[in-house]
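Recap from last week: sequence in, structure out.
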Amino acid sequence: GMAEFWDIYDQNKCKTGKLAQRDVYQFKRGEYHLVVVAVIMNSKNEILVTKRAKTKKKEPLKWELTGGGAKAGETSLQAILREIKEEIGLTFVPDEAIFLKEIRKDEVPANFKDIWLFKKDIKIEEIEFADGEVEDVKWVSIEQFLQIKEDNKMISTVDFKRGDYDLALSKM
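Predicted structure tokens:
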């Protein structure tokens, strides 16, 4: 596909004006990129998890939360709405997005990870694996979510703990 570019941010989450080509650019110390993650929850307070396609280079067939890298010029909110649409074919409007938290990871390549919360009852049949990055999807309780993580069946970069779940419930 087309080359994808990311904005490079400084440690204060301000854009530096420089761009990084995805999978090509070598990030230097003090340079960050923006990652967005969606926690989609239903009225039973279950979390939507997706399974990575077996064709994925990194951690195929592992479970994850929908998300990805913000493209150059996108806001965090624009990026998460696009990722949800691309990966699972669902359209949310900005008003449905609740900012949950930001996590800053300082190891190179460093990133800011913005976690967004969405509340919606979605039938599994309504989900479309639009771009081929996902091959399965299911609703899980927080206990099941943590168990999948413990069993090493979830991607290593998932940063969603019981405390984050409690925070999510408090924002519902």
